[in-house]
């Protein structure tokens, strides 16, 4: 059966699902395009997202974390590919009222799953920051190694994450879409208002990645 498609301009919620199988960081977004090989989402500057903030005790030691409202700081076009374990982001910043292309970002993550309100995925720590001239650097390599060593990921999963990022970098090296510059001047529909998190976004049960045990094993309780 063919999956239902969203239409351009539809409001959806992109949720990161924690290892404890609950919604965590989340973004409101508008659908730009939804087809068999691509789901493109737009998260505008000023959209109120849910992000983690650490909570410390009276001695200043971290004890837990909580989700708080954080405005998104740049227009971001997030390109998500069905079945792939990475997404590619493009972002634009405001410079004295002028919209300037800021660059690309390769985010390693779970393959996304559709939900009634949007999509579920989860971040896999390692990223690649790509400048407009296509020069690039790794981001959070040390954090990935630390999480693998501390049991956040199962043994050898860090190697799999690295291999995924390297596979995405092959697209960059070939200068294939979106690294061909064709989207650098992209603009959202002028009629789109800033999306908001859909009511009940955190109450809808998570749609889990079928291969999650290969990454997290038996995740500990929160």
What is the tally of beta strands? Answer: 12
Q: Tell me about the biggest sheet?
A: 10 strands, mixed
Helix content: 10-25%
Q: Gap between N and C termini, in Å?
A: 37 Å
CATH level-two architecture of the domain at 28-49 and 72-184:
Beta Barrel
Secondary-structure element order, N to C: EEEEEEEEEEEEHHH
CATH class assignment of the domain at 28-49 and 72-184: Mainly Beta
If you compute it from the alpha carbons, what radius of gyration comes out, rounded to the nearest whole angstrom?
Answer: 18 Å
Count of helices? 3
Kindly estimate the percentage of residues that lie in beta strands according to DSSP: 35-45%
Structural class: mainly beta
CATH topology of the domain at 28-49 and 72-184: FomD barrel-like fold
Give the spatial strand order of the biggest sheet. 9-10-1-2-3-6-7-8-11-12
- Mean pLDDT value: 94
- Shape descriptor reads globular
CATH fourth-tier homologous superfamily of the domain at 28-49 and 72-184: FomD-like
Structure summary:
The protein has helices at 141-149, 157-174, 213-216; strands at residues 11-17, 23-35, 38-43, 48-56, 62-71, 75-80, 86-95, 98-109, 113-114, 118-121, 123-130, 136-139.
């Amino acid at each position: 059966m063919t999956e239902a498609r969203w239409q351009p301009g539809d409001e959806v919620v992109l949720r990161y699902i924690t290892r404890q199988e609950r919604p965590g960081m989340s973004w409101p977004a508008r659908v730009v395009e939804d087809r068999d090989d691509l789901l493109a989402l737009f998260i505008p500057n000023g959209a109120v997202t849910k992000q983690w903030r650490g909570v410390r005790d009276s001695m200043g030691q971290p004890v837990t974390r909580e989700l708080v409202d954080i405005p998104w700081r740049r227009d971001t076009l997030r390109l998500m590919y069905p079945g792939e374990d990475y997404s590619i982001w493009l972002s634009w910043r405001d410079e004295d009222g002028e919209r300037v292309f800021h660059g690309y970002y390769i985010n390693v993550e779970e393959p996304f799953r559709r939900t009634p309100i949007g999509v579920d995925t989860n971040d896999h720590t390692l990223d690649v920051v790509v400048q407009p001239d296509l020069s690039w650097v790794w981001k959070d390599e040390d954090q990935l190694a630390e999480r693998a060593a501390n049991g956040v990921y199962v043994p050898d999963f860090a190697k799999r994450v690295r291999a995924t990022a390297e596979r995405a970098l092959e697209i960059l090296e070939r200068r294939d879409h979106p690294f061909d510059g064709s989207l650098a001047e992209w603009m959202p529909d002028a009629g789109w208002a800033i999306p908001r998190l859909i009511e009940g976004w955190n109450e809808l049960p998570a749609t889990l990645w079928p291969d999650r045990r290969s990454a997290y094993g038996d995740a500990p309780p929160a």
